[in-house]
Amino acid sequence: MSVPRMLTGDRPTGRLHLGHYVGSIANRVALHHRYESYFIIADLHMLTTRNSRDDIAAVSGNAREMVTDILACGVDPGQATFYLQSAIPEVGDLNTLLQNLVTVPRLERVPSVREMARDAGRDEIPYGLLGYPVLQAADILCVKAHVVPVGKDNAAHVEVTREIARRFNHLYGEVFPVPELIMSETPTLVGTDGQAKMSKSRGNAIALSDDAAAVRRKVMGMYTDPNRVRADVPGTVEGNPVFAYHAVFNPDRAQVAEFAARYRAGRIGDVEVKEALAVALNRFLDPIRERRARIEAQPGLVDQVIVEGTERTRERVRATLVEVRRAMGLTAAYQQVRRRAERARRAAAGSA
């Protein structure tokens, strides 16, 4: 029996952060040995909200940083295939064939599409952004992925993929597996400002590549309970970003419970809680920093990983597209025309 496949990835818009880690990278690290794993560098998806020449020029550098972050988190490059989406034009061909299997009203019901337009400062939704879930379906189905580890934001997208796969199989025969979602244990991590999810564009993120001093500075500036003006005022733990981070990244559960009890009773200051969080986060990030340093000490390693992975993936996608076109009857249509043209050519040559 063949090994089941997994696909996931990110847009190359900069270095990854703790929100990416809890949303999907932790799952990738845990799962990539169990699956034939594909990690997409989704630069075509990036174009839906960032498509200036400067944005595009930054793709190669951002791709290297992104792959370095993921490898530093513990993904084995020998057990995973990284590839650049735009270097595989067949993905666009598959997107064209799949886009006729879903309606505009269905895409308009995907909540994250409007959220992405809003976050990008767009009053109207571009055509490409509306079709984002269809291109994502092409990404998943082109390698025939069986599972897709996702954060909360992308769950609705993958459901569109499942619907498209079922509809294609119903119309043209069983070609695609219907992929299953693997949700992260921590679907969303609030940003350091406490106002929205962690995001590079909002400036409320702690990067996986931040040094210890940067982490401490960001933690000490974190939003907490706005009603707590002094350390002796009872504070709220629920919804407090500092305690949310402690819950995820501080393995000393007894310390976290003690802090929470004292905070509610007004017997501990924000500074002490934040200092402990900075220590916990840096302990969590130290092994990632060490692996990153080893990777960066090997010039060209990450570029080689991307190039080799892209070439392997393109071979698989080409094979999938041949199967798709054959199942739909598109290959036969052209062959019929070509045979008739060949007969006409022979007839003309014979009468000359």
- Structurally, how many domains make up the residues? 2
- Give the biggest beta sheet: 3 strands, parallel
Task: Find the count of extended strands (DSSP E, 2+ residues).
Answer: 5
Question: Strands across the major sheet, in which order?
Answer: 1-2-3
* Percent range of helical residues: 55-70%
Can you give a write-up of this model?
Pfam families: tRNA-synt_1b. It is found in: Cytoplasm. Belongs to the class-I aminoacyl-tRNA synthetase family. This protein has 16 helices and five strands. With 352 residues, the protein is mainly α. It has two domains: 224 residues, Rossmann fold (3-Layer(aba) Sandwich), CATH 3.40.50.620; 83 residues, Tyrosyl-Transfer RNA Synthetase, CATH 1.10.240. α10 links the parallel β4 and β5. α11 packs antiparallel against α14. The protein is elongated and about 105 Å long. The termini are far apart. The model has no long low-confidence stretch (mean pLDDT 91).
Secondary-structure map:
Layout: E1 5-10, H1 18-31, E2 36-41, H2 43-46, H3 53-57, H4 59-72, E3 80-84, H5 90-98, H6 104-108, H7 111-119, H8 127-130, H9 132-142, E4 147-150, H10 155-172, E5 180-183, H11 212-220, H12 241-249, H13 253-265, H14 270-296, H15 301-328, H16 330-351
Parallel strand pairs: 1-2, 2-3, 4-5
Helix pairs in contact: 4-14, 5-9, 5-15, 9-10, 11-14, 12-14
